[in-house]
């Protein structure tokens, strides 16, 4: 609880909430942390399925769509908003939907967002474990030769990742994640640059795979049905690689009130999307140029590269560190939602509302809340167990991306923009926006279908809790 005498102090904003200190740099770091994730390493595989032309065009198209709709969402942060009189802040994406659309759409949005957030945290647990295992395998291949049987279970790595997340999950809110996001941004540039560099070195060596304008060749690389389903799944992978609209409002809520949050957020979105798109095109295209139609699903963990083994180890360590932070970026909205609901329902419960100060060696004084400790620990354990049951990397990436892309990146931002700016029904602008929504829905459905087919084939060959890589 905030005492009335403290509201006007340096610690709090004029609405009594903790004072915001975010800037263009921290917002850009949050975006890059959310965007440049595990998906970047599957882009060479995605382009191999789609080909040079379609793969590159789809990458750029998704980047433009994401930036365009993110500007709409940024303008909806305050409601109603005007140039001369700023509106009321909406602290979460759900709050924005409630302010502009209301009714049943709030529940539909909540289902879409929180299911996607849970899916992303599960996916990051899987990916981090794969990278941890890859470090051990790289050392094994170096010592015993590339033909050695270097298999290892993912489960200890998933458990270790879960333990780290239990500790980091006690960070109270989004405002205190900036240091993690900056570290993660550096890590993401490191491993993406290493993947690009190793791909360029392979291209220069001349030992490259066969490429084609349309990607994998039916009858040579894949069957006709595989070509179709994998192409759909590849579109889902690309959609996932830009999934940050889901936490955009929460990131915007960390920004200082001056200059206006929406203007800073648009600049941060442009910086984040343009930077990551450049990396995506380089990583995806150079990876495809190096490996051709046989491009692995993950450049660094499926051992497209064996040497220099220490560099592959370092790149995988960077991936793990990045995902440690990215998990928190996507988990915080879930934590805040549940805790806000419980605080509202049981405001007198000391178990839920009381904060306890505790000194921790090497860290210093920390605020501990028993409910936060137990609930967040339980959440991390749940996502870790789910990751252990369903460790299918590419198919899960595609399914999460396709399911989250349409409602959260396209439908809700467009619907709220139409409501906010009062776009006249059946006008040219209204029809253009509705056409964008329809086309993106078709793309999302096809991508989800391809990912489901990929998951089914993976499930057939999988035995729970016996998986090794």
Automatic annotation (TrEMBL):
This protein's UniProt keywords: Amino-acid transport, Membrane, Transmembrane, Transmembrane helix, Transport
Predominant localisation class: membrane
Annotated ranges, domain Amino acid transporter transmembrane: 21-456
Protein location: Membrane
Annotated Pfam families: Aa_trans
Ranges annotated as spanning the membrane: 24-43, 50-69, 114-135, 177-201, 268-289, 309-330, 373-390, 396-414, 435-459
Organism: Camelina sativa
Name of the protein: Amino acid permease 8-like
């Amino acid at each position: 609880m905030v005492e009335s005498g403290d509201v006007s102090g340096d610690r709090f904003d004029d609405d009594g909430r903790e004072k915001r200190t975010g800037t263009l740099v921290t917002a850009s770091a949050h975006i890059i942390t959310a965007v440049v994730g595990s998906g970047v390493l599957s882009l060479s595989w995605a382009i191999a399925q789609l080909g040079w032309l379609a793969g590159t065009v789809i990458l750029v198209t998704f980047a433009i769509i994401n930036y365009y709709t993110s500007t709409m969402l940024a303008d909806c942060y305050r409601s109603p908003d005007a140039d001369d009189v700023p509106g009321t802040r909406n602290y979460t994406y759900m709050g924005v939907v409630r302010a502009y659309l209301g009714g049943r759409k709030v529940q539909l949005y909540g289902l879409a967002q929180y299911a996607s957030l849970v899916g992303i945290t599960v996916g990051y647990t899987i990916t981090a474990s794969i990278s941890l295992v890859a470090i051990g395998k790289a050392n094994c291949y170096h010592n015993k030769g590339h033909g050695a049987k270097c298999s290892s279970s993912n489960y200890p790595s998933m458990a270790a990742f879960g333990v780290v997340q239990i500790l980091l999950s006690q960070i109270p809110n989004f405002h205190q994640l900036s240091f993690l996001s900056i570290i993660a941004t550096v890590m993401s540039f490191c491993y993406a640059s290493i993947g690009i560099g190793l791909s360029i070195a392979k291209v220069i060596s001349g030992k490259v795979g066969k490429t084609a304008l349309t990607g994998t060749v039916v009858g040579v690389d894949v069957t006709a049905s595989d070509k179709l389903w994998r192409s759909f799944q590849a579109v889902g992978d690309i959609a996932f690689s830009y999934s940050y609209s889901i936490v955009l409002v929460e990131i915007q809520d960390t920004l200082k009130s001056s200059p206006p949050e929406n203007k800073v957020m648009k600049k941060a979105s442009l910086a984040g999307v343009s930077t990551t798109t450049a990396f995506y095109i380089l990583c995806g295209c150079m990876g495809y140029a190096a490996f051709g139609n046989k491009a692995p699903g993950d450049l660094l963990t499926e051992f497209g590269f064996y040497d220099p083994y220490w560099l592959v180890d370092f790149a995988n360590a960077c991936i793990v560190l990045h995902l440690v932070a990215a998990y928190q970026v996507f988990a915080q909205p879930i934590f805040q939602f549940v805790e806000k609901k419980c605080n509202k329902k049981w405001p007198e419960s000391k178990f839920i509302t009381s904060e306890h100060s505790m000194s921790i060696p090497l860290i210093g004084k920390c605020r501990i809340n028993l409910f936060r400790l137990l609930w967040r620990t339980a959440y991390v354990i749940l996502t870790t167990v789910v990751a252990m049951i369903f460790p299918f990397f590419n198919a899960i990436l595609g399914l999460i991306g396709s399911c989250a892309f349409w409602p959260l990146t396209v439908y809700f931002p467009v619907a709220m923009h139409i409501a906010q700016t009062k776009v006249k029904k059946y006008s040219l602008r209204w029809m253009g926006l509705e056409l964008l929504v329809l086309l993106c829905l078709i793309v999302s459905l096809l991508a989800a279908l391809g990912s489901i087919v990929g998951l089914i084939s993976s499930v057939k060959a999988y035995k729970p809790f016996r998986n090794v890589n």
